[in-house]
Amino acid sequence: MPDESAVRFAVLGPVRIWRGERELDLGGPQERALLALLLLRAGQPVPVAEIVDALWGPHPPRTALNVVRRHVGSLRRLLEPGLPARASGRRLLRGAGGYRLATDGDALDLVRFRGLRDQARRAAAEGSPARAVDLLAEALSLWNGPVASGISPDVRDRLAVDGPQREHLAAVREAADAALGAGVPGRVLPQLREAVAAHPLDEPLLARLVLALAATGRRAEALSTYRTACTRLADELGIDPGPELRDALHEATGPGADTPPRESPGPRTAVPAQLPHDLPTFTGRHAELEEVLGPLAGGAEQDGTVLISALGGMAGVGKTALAVHWAHRVADRYPDGQLYADLRGFAPTGSITDPGEALRGFLDALGVPPERIPQGLDAQAALYRSVLSGRRVLVLLDNARDAEQVRPLLPGAPGCLTVVTSRDELTGLVAVHGARSLTLSPFDTGQARAFLAGRLGTARIAAEPAAVDEIITRCAGLPLALACVAARAALRPHFPLAAVAAELREAHGSLDAFTRPDTSADVATVFSWSAHAVSAEAARLFRLLALHPGPDASPAAAAALAGLPLRQVRPLLAELCGVHLVNEPAPGRHAFHDLLRAHATELLQTHHGEDERQEAVDRLFAHYLHRAHAAGAVLDPSGDLPPLPEGTHTEPFADDSQALAWLGAEYGALPAVIQEAAASGRDRLACQLAWSLEPYFERRGHWHDGLAAQRTALDAALRLADPALEARARRGLGRAAGRLGLHDEARAHLDRALELFTGLGDLVGRAGTHRSLGWTSEQQGDLAGALRHNRLALDLFRSAGHRPAQASVLNSVGWYHVLLGEHRQALTHCFEALTLLQDLGDRYGQAATWDSIAYAYHHLGRHPHVLLGYRNALTLYRGLGVPYPEADTLTRIGETHLATGDRDSARAAWEQALTLLTALGHPDADRVRARLDGRDERVGAV
Questions:
Q1: The pLDDT value given to residue 530
Q2: Which of 373, 371, 352 lies closest to 362 in space, CA to CA?
Q3: Please, what are the averages of pLDDT over each run of 10 residues along the chain (942 residues)?
Q4: Residue 900 phi, psi (nearest 5)
Q5: Is the pTM of this model over 0.85?
Q6: Residue 930 CB neighbours (<10 A)
Q7: N or C: which end of the chain has fewer CB within 10 A?
Q8: For residue 907, what is the DSSP state?
Q9: If we measure between CA atoms, which residue out of 651, 657, 648 comes closest to residue 630?
Q10: Cβ atoms of residues 230 and 246 within 8 Å
Q11: Residue 70 Cα distances to 66, 67, 73, angstroms
């Protein structure tokens, strides 16, 4: 007797439910669609936002959430009669941001089908093809038509029925293989004919039908089937049959060789050269140089840590200048590169460099791909030590605050030299790590005289010895102060040094924190005197520059702070550089010494009120937001950056290279601006800047920084209680978390973002979130889910009329079809994407799409088409000036030539690729070199 209380479900055909032997009435079309969606997920939760997307598409009614709840209640009462109105029951459960339908065992035909298919695979692997045929025949008998048939086509398309349909086709192919192996090909002929009728361009199915027909004695029909397929492939796709179908005609039993998956490039064996420029006027410190260079004399290899500290915490004593000069002297002994980081341990703004930030910068410079950089300081430090193991690298850590900041940045194995500068003695490094300590004192009188003579000339120094002695005394022997005085005096060569000394005597400052306790000299007087020596406009700019949060500033940022046109600011910066109040460490970048920044900060508090200071900060932050927004729009034309307020105008960037150059130059300041904006109550700006930087984080792989920025943005959005801001922040946070492998956190944020965007009626926001969910699904091994989300994104972008995003998603849809082995569908979507991208003028997108097209053709064995696709991509990459994709494409062109037997053309392509990769210092050069030498075993498999 059947159990009258048992509930069975069907979705492989019409959507149906039985209780015992009685079929239940499912209600209206939307209840059926909701049930189908829940059944297709087979016990997995479906977020509410996805339910809304499936039932209504891009334009749900405002009452959509209430309608979903009403349908859920109806289904619950249908499944569990007598259930109270607000009870959740035990079958249709709420949780994880959505609903889950719990089914018992094989009560769902889809689950039963998958179980039988798994058993058949095991039977085939165990050498029992007859048993596999029986199991697959039973599995295929569960199908009663297309998945979820009877539901309106537009809704059915949104239910993502493609996944189970692909499983059905795979089962038919598996059944054919098993039947041919068991010698019973006739058992699968009906299913093969039906499948080929529905998919007349599926060559694997056609090949099996030809083999089955031939094996059952129907050779004439097999030949007719082959000829019909040839005609259809030529007429509809313009191609010839692939090797699998050709082999089937000749009754071959094995499929043609397949292309191995493309490998992502490994870590670059980069040779970083990050040392700052050496000072051409470096003078003195002969004894100190002898002390640190002595152990290296005669070729001795003395590696480890050298600590250059200052007497009594003194700033401006020349630690950095000595360290950089020495590092350049010994750099040739460390052929694997030089790393440099300004740790900003005593920055007056308090923006101390986090060791994790410095580590990530070093790992990037050493060629570690961003996706390989783990979460957490300890894990990053361990990877850093591993990368440096066996290499000879010089590491210069400038301006360290304490030993704790330095320890994660120390190499772990012999062969590397680490130089640390600090105002602190860092006794922990000496005691625990065996650092050799060198303490710098201010110049004595002789050293100071030589220093001034090198800048002002020996004759001028000798002519006024008393004035020189007074200058040296008032500068306390500090090289920084002496440089300021020398710069001022050099600009006035006929001005007596006695007058300079008199001006210093009359000047006064208040930089008490930097005054040496053992002398009456106040170094601030030197800086105050220098500041009085420039124009009022330059002095004002000097003070306002103290508000800049980054390590250096561009002329445009300085102009924003000052509220002046750029053409007026450039000469003011030159004036400040001329008296050494500001330096220019790189063209167009202006920086303070910490001592001078502290002095400027004191003057700022004295000369400018709170309102004036905040207005300057507002101008600076607005400048950064507007430029970052313009750069983000260029880097990701398919993105959905929110518009800036009306009346905002900023000059657009001409192309990617300009945008990337600006972002790279300003990157030291931009994350700090986000943090400072949020900390100072500028929450909306913090959110907008974080979103504007998303394309850069993605392009450069700065995902840890992206994660931090998006967390700051989310906190700011929650403070503002703005659901639109929260949705964007959660989506950005989900993307960054996913890139770092935090997939559970990523999915939680993305699901919540999808709910928020749905509630807001934001089509583009929903679409972008589906794209991100698709990528997360791919990373978790769910290619069908990845395709489903990208198809939903495509529908939404089409409804919103967002053509750049449509083009990008079309290529993604095509790519997922390739990964799923559906090469025909892939080509259809990729060619549609290509047409759109050509209309839009997106050359980078066109190149990537041609690459996808060539990859699909490679799997189909269409070598002439493969070469055409890769050559088109190559032409575009060369025009864009991106050498690595060019080299990568040349490598695959060589592989394709080799697959056709043209070894000369293969060698020519690989030689070009090798030239590019060698110039880049990329490890793929070794692989290409191995192919040219005939040592790469993988080449023959192409």
A1: 60
A2: 373
A3: 72 89 86 89 83 85 87 87 76 80 85 91 88 91 88 82 84 91 88 86 86 84 85 73 81 39 41 82 68 53 49 56 83 89 74 86 83 79 83 88 86 81 71 66 82 86 88 76 79 83 63 37 55 82 90 92 93 83 83 73 86 94 94 84 72 85 90 92 94 86 87 95 94 90 89 92 92 89 90 91 90 89 88 90 86 88 88 86 82 90 90 83 80 61 35
A4: -95, 0
A5: no
A6: 15
A7: N
A8: H
A9: 651
A10: no
A11: 6, 5, 5
SS3 549: coil
CB atoms within 10 A of CB 154: 9
CA–CA gap between residue 676 and residue 176 (Å, rounded) = 65
> Cβ–Cβ contacts within 10 Å for residue 332, how many?
8
What b-and-e string marks burial along 123-135, b requiring 16 or more CB atoms within 10 Å of the CB?
bbeeebbebbbbb
What pLDDT was estimated at residue 96?
Answer: 64
Closest by CA position to 677, among listed 727, 625, 628: 625
Cβ 158 vs Cβ 792: under 8 Å: yes
Distance of CA 934 to the CA centre of its chain: 35
Total H helices, total E strands in the chain: 44, 13
CA distance 428 to 410: 13
Instruction: State the Cα–Cα distance between residues 428 and 720, nearest whole angstrom.
Output: 45
Residue 309 gets which letter from DSSP?
E
How many C-beta neighbours within 10 Å does residue 657 have? 13
311: which DSSP letter?
G
Write the pLDDT tens digit of every residue in 517-535: 433 344 555 566 566 667 8
Burial of 515 (0-12, 13-18, 19+ CB in 10 A): middle
Cα 402 from Cα 423, distance rounded (Å): 9
Separation CA 631–CA 653 (nearest Å): 6
What single letter denotes the amino acid at residue 8? R
CA atoms of 328 and 279, how far apart (whole Å):
10
Tokens representing 872 are 């088109």
CA 543 to chain CA centroid, Å, is 37
The pLDDT of residue 312: 31
At residue 721, the pLDDT reads: 95
- DSSP strand pairing (98-101 vs 583-586): unpaired
The confidence score (pLDDT) of residue 352 equals: 82
Q: How far apart are CA 429 and CA 565, in angstroms?
A: 48
Contact in structure between 911 and 254 (CB atoms under 8 Å): no
State pLDDT tens for residues 538-559.
989 989 998 998 888 999 999 9
Q: Which residues contact 739 (CB under 8 A, 6 or more apart)?
A: 370, 371, 698, 701, 703, 706
Q: How far apart are the C-alpha atoms of 521 and 214, rounded to whole Å?
A: 103
Which two structure tokens, joined as six digits, stand for 141?
A: 């008998």
Residues in the chain: 942
Q: Is the dihedral of CA 369, 371, 376, 382 positive or negative?
A: negative
What does the DSSP assignment read for 750-798? HHHHHHHHHHHT-HHHHHHHHHHHHHHHHHTT-HHHHHHHHHHHHHHHH
Report d(CA 389, CA 410) in Å as an integer.
12
Burial 186-197 (b: 16+ CB within 10 A, else e): ebbbebbeebbe
Q: Which residues of 777-792 are buried (b: 16+ CB within 10 A; e: fewer)?
A: bbeeebbbbbbbbbbb
Instruction: Give dist(CA 562, CA 549) in Å, integer.
Output: 15
Cβ distance 860 to 823 under 8 Å?
yes
Distance CA 906, CA 113 (A): 46
In angstroms, rounded to a whole number, what is the distance separating the alpha carbons of residues 506 and 696? 51
| Single-letter code of the amino acid located at 148 | A
